[in-house]
Write a structure and sequence with these properties.
Layout lengths: L4 H10 L7 E2 H8 L5 H10 L11 E2 L16 H8 L4 E2 L2 E2 L2 H4 L8
Parallel strand pairs: 1-2
Antiparallel strand pairs: 3-4
The structure holds a DNA duplex.
Length: 107
DNA sequence: AAGGTGACCGGCC
DNA sequence: TGGCCGGCCACCT
């Protein structure tokens, strides 16, 4: 009973454990629309109003904080990640593979 | 209704 | 990884 595409994205994002991150493509695949990775980013844009959506845990496949530009400050996203134990240098996540979390495609 | 847009991804060099 | 290009899909005007 998903209201719309966004709700689905939020559902996945909320499942991201602390200290872990995932990519837009991974979420897209979890939703079944791997090709709509861009939509995931769009949903994240709307997630700005959602407090339950940790958008800072979502990065692109390179582990780059592509969306940091959309956060309040310029390094807010990085601060949040580092706060969870994730090392971020130059807007890029260190050990990206190590902190990468694959969303459960359980819907 | 049509067109533009975007926090992407994958392939290629 | 870095740069360029095409495809993709839902949302907004």
């Amino acid at each position: 009973m998903e209201e719309n595409f966004f709700e689905r994205v939020y559902a996945i994002a909320r499942q991201i454990p602390e200290g872990k991150v995932t990519s837009y493509g991974a979420i897209a695949k979890a939703l079944g629309t791997a090709r709509s990775a861009r939509m995931v980013g769009w949903a994240m844009n709307a997630s700005h109003n959602m407090e339950d959506v940790p958008a800072h845990r979502v990065v692109n496949r390179k582990g780059l904080l592509s969306g940091k530009h959309h956060f309040d400050g310029t390094n807010l996203m990085q601060q949040l990640l580092e706060n969870e134990g994730i090392i971020v240098v130059d807007n890029q996540i260190v050990d990206f593979e190590n902190v990468f979390w694959m969303p459960k495609m359980d819907l």
